[in-house]
């Protein structure tokens, strides 16, 4: 079981540690539901150092990333980021990731922890087959990645940050100093709130983590992060999508640049766009009390039509919410469903995603 460089910080602060994607990670500190509320109303801090960190560079780096992802990568402005999907030839989602552009020939990719090795192999396979000038520099074990999330993050981070955070737009990336230490600062996250993600050398990760807590950020675990991302309608690879699910089936068509000349899986996705899909990811809200969980069956009129892929009690909405795949004819908003929660048929309705959206300043 791997441990992040912040492992000692978590044990010192009473974090409850559990196995996750091969890592020993904190699932909670003060309590999962209270941590959700803290992120929604003030600021929470997460250790996300288990996520992969790959610098991809070389003369053909942009061209290769354009081929392997569903988004326009080569034409991205430097200093910007994109959420994108990496698909196989059949259109199945190998991983979802954020790619940050440093320069025309240098990019930072953040794959999911459980998919990092797969993505490295996938990139190398195509680079070798096409004889592309591409180099991967894996810095996952040499760095710490910290996510600061919530409406009060600017007040907390700005006093120790050399960058004017108010001038940074969402999905931007820049290098600057935090506590005097050189860091990568990105305005991204996985909670639906204002977010900053910090990547820094392991030698001073603990100092930055501790100071952010001293300045008012509350340490939070993966339990709260999971609820927050479900409330925000954000999918988890391995649960809500996999290499047998296409972006159209997962409701992620908006992240597919069909105007690109080619990319992995394009022909399959074009066929689905023309003919239609048979199944679709839905969001649902419970009408009765209960907590839907991964693997619970979805019914309509006593017939099994699908399965919950992610589910939880939402403290923000005060009800059970979840995601799952159903035949396309049952995916219409307000369609009545039942979720089998430990043998009890619980009423639910198809609901639009996201379940929660933060209020944005005018």
Can you give a write-up of this model?
The structure is a single chain. The protein has 362 residues and is α+β, with helices and mostly antiparallel strands. It has 3 domains: 135 residues, 2-Layer Sandwich (Gyrase A, domain 2); 84 residues, Alpha-Beta Plaits (2-Layer Sandwich); 85 residues, Beta Barrel (Elongation Factor Tu (Ef-tu), domain 3), CATH 2.40.30.110. It is built from 8 helices and 19 strands. Strands 10-11-12-9-3-13 form a 6-stranded mixed sheet. The longest helix has 15 residues.
Write the layout of secondary structure elements.
Layout: H1 7-12, E1 16-20, E2 23-28, H2 32-41, E3 44-47, E4 54-57, H3 61-68, E5 81-87, E6 93-103, E7 106-110, H4 116-130, E8 135-138, E9 143-149, H5 153-157, E10 173-178, E11 181-186, E12 195-201, H6 202-214, E13 218-219, H7 222-231, H8 266-275, E14 279-286, E15 297-300, E16 303-314, E17 319-327, E18 336-341, E19 344-351
Parallel strand pairs: 3-13
Antiparallel strand pairs: 1-2, 3-9, 4-7, 4-8, 5-6, 6-7, 9-12, 10-11, 11-12, 14-17, 14-19, 15-16, 15-18, 16-17, 18-19
Major sheet strand order:
10-11-12-9-3-13
Radius of gyration, whole Å: 21 Å
Got a strand count? Answer: 19
The N- and C-terminal alpha carbons lie at a distance of: 46 Å
Structure classification: alpha+beta
Instruction: Give the mean pLDDT.
Output: 97
Please indicate the percent range of residues in DSSP E strands (runs of 2 or more). 25-35%
Which CATH architecture of the largest domain would you pick? 2-Layer Sandwich
**How would you characterize the largest beta sheet?**
6 strands, mixed
CATH class of the largest domain: Alpha Beta
CATH topology of the largest domain: Gyrase A, domain 2
Structure annotation, total helices: 8
Q: Which geometry do the CA atoms define?
A: globular
The CATH homology group name of the largest domain: Probable tRNA modification gtpase trme, domain 1
Could you estimate the helical fraction of the residues in percent?
A: 10-25%
Q: What are the secondary-structure elements, in order, as H or E?
A: HEEHEEHEEEHEEHEEEHEHHEEEEEE
Domains, number:
3
Q: Which residues form runs of ≥5 with pLDDT under 50?
A: none
